[in-house]
Amino acid sequence: MHRPPPGGFLFQADEMANRLWKLRQRFGIAAPKVLVRTHVPWYLRWFGIAVMLAVSATLAAWMYDAGRRFAGFDRSEVEQELSAARSELAKLRSELASLRAIANAADSKVSIERTAQQKVSQQARSLEQDNARLREELAIFESMLSSDTAGAAPLSVLRFKVEPDTLPGEYRYRVLLLASGPRRGREFVGRLELVVNLTEAGGSAMIKVPGQGEPDAAPFRLGFKHFQRIDGTFRVSPKAKVASVQVRVYEAGSVEPKVTQSVTLD
Q: Is residue 139 domain-shared with residue 32, that is, in the same domain?
């Protein structure tokens, strides 16, 4: 008869005790808790999350607006004020455009009036020049009628005038020559010359117009029977001051002037 080895019963008893302890831990009071959850589809979970986020955002916006209103800031009032400011700005811009149009019209009117005044002034100067010319011609004819043919000079300078012109250093001269006495009715042919005395940089100088290279320049040629009017300009250095001007009238082929006359400038 087979006998179990010594201590065999004790080993089997310990093993049975260990199994019982493990069963108690799994199914007894000390067993781990089991959580049973209901299965929810994924799209419902995402929908729920989205709803929660939307509600949270709305609640946050409401709390933000409520906080600003509580602090004295009302968005609706600010929008109304901004709208009113924009309307006022549009109104001011419209008024500014209207004022600019009025100003442009006024400027145009002033420009037109200024142009008209300039034209009137030019016409007045032209009429004055024509009047002076007519007076000169009348004086010429009166002198020709009243002059003594026996004792009158054959050639005379009836009028000689020099005055500054528009540009610096530019001068305008006017000469009126009259033939009378025995020469009346015969053509006088010759040339005219101007001698300008001036001062510059503390020194004095003299220049002739026309210059040495153009003694027979067209504006200075003479050819008349009764009278001739010569009108022109000459130029000097803008820094120079003209003291006096002498006009000399030469007959063709003569080196000595027939008649001279001087004018002093202030």
A: yes
